[in-house]
Write a structure and sequence with these properties.
- The strands form two sheets. Strands 6-7-8-3-9-10 form a six-stranded mixed beta sheet.
- The longest helix has 17 residues.
- It contains ten helices and ten strands.
- The chain has one domain: Rossmann fold (3-Layer(aba) Sandwich), CATH 3.40.50.
- 40% of the residues lie in helices and 22% in strands.
- With 270 residues, it is an alpha/beta fold.
- A hairpin with a 2-residue loop joins strand 4 and strand 5.
- It binds adenosine-5'-triphosphate.
- Adenosine-5'-triphosphate binds next to helix 1.
- Adenosine-5'-triphosphate (ATP) binds next to helix 1.
Length: 270
């Protein structure tokens, strides 16, 4: 369980996070949305311990991460998988070596055991015959899948994903979203995703946190977001492609019918 309690973080004069409190839902996809510069990345970096908040607590199982000793921090870190923007694979390492990297760092397993695990997770993300390839030889979507394989290789309890769809076409984005959602449910992971992508919000957003100027402005589910009455959130979502879907949903509510052939079942599924 991840509980964020009133965290504040600034750089010099600039306050970036201004008292954020939220509980990430266990075994669900928790999405952080908000305009560029609203503090999403700083928030995520604070949660994984890459940044130390000026005030407040980031609690894993009710213990403040920043008050743990090094050994205890290492234990939590081992339970955290991360998928960075752009996948952040090591260019000079093969796919197999990239995915094996966390196992080399955190385990003393034999090579054979590590290789077995690497192949298991590559299979899970539906990648075959890529062990010997280098990242430069892969498509953007394949790189993301390698990144996901690496993020789950240690069987994490927590998965942090920064902008999973950046640089991907809509079709590939959907595949990656689906994979993140499936893995979250299958392995009972608490997943936190930073995203700009409103399609992701509808597809995988079990719990959505809307950030505005360093504060949590709204939180709710992907069904609640459609009919929300928060002005700032509506301004944000109406500036995106989501507008069309949200308008359709409202019309459906008001008139009982929609004026185009969009797949409402798909939009409503949760
Ligand atoms: N290390 C740093 N030093 C100084 N300022 C920083 C630092 N990291 C982030 N900031 C500032 O904090 C603010 C929030 O940045 P952050 O990257 O969290 O935004 P974001 O919501 O993730 O934006 P985007 O969607 O564009 O990635 C920005 O104004 C940024 O310039």
């Amino acid at each position: 369980m991840i509980e964020v309690k009133n965290i504040k973080k600034g750089f010099g004069e600039r306050t970036v996070l201004n008292g954020v409190s939220v509980t990430m839902q266990a075994g669900k996809c928790n999405l952080i949305i908000g305009a560029s510069g609203s503090g999403k990345t700083v928030f995520m970096k604070s949660m994984v311990g890459l940044l130390v908040p000026d005030e407040g607590e980031i609690c894993y199982n009710e213990k403040d991460f920043n008050k743990l000793n090094n050994e205890e921090k290492k234990e939590i870190r081992q339970q955290i998988g991360m998928l960075f923007q752009g996948s952040a694979l090591f260019d000079s390492l093969t796919v197999e070596q990239n995915v094996m990297f966390p196992l080399n760092m955190f385990t003393k397993d034999t090579y054979a055991k590590k290789l077995k695990r690497v192949n298991e997770v590559l299979e899970r993300v539906k990648l075959k015959d890529v062990n010997r390839k280098f990242p430069a030889e892969l498509s953007g979507g394949m790189k993301k899948r390698v990144g996901i394989a690496r993020a789950i290789v240690l069987n994490p309890k927590y998965l942090f994903v920064d902008e999973p769809n950046s640089g991907l076409d809509p079709q590939t984005s959907l595949v990656i979203d689906k994979l993140v959602k499936e893995i979250t449910t299958e392995y009972d992971i608490t997943t936190v995703v930073n995203t700009h992508d409103m399609n992701s919000v509808m597809e995988i957003g079990d719990h959505i946190i809307f950030m505005f100027q360093g504060k949590k402005e709204w939180e709710g589910s992907n069904k609640e977001i459609i009919f929300n009455k928060n002005e700032r959130l509506n301004e944000f979502i109406f500036a995106s492609d989501f507008l069309k879907d949200a308008k359709d949903m409202r019309m459906l509510e008001q008139t009982g019918k929609i004026n185009n052939d969009r797949d409402m079942d798909k939009l409503l599924k949760g």
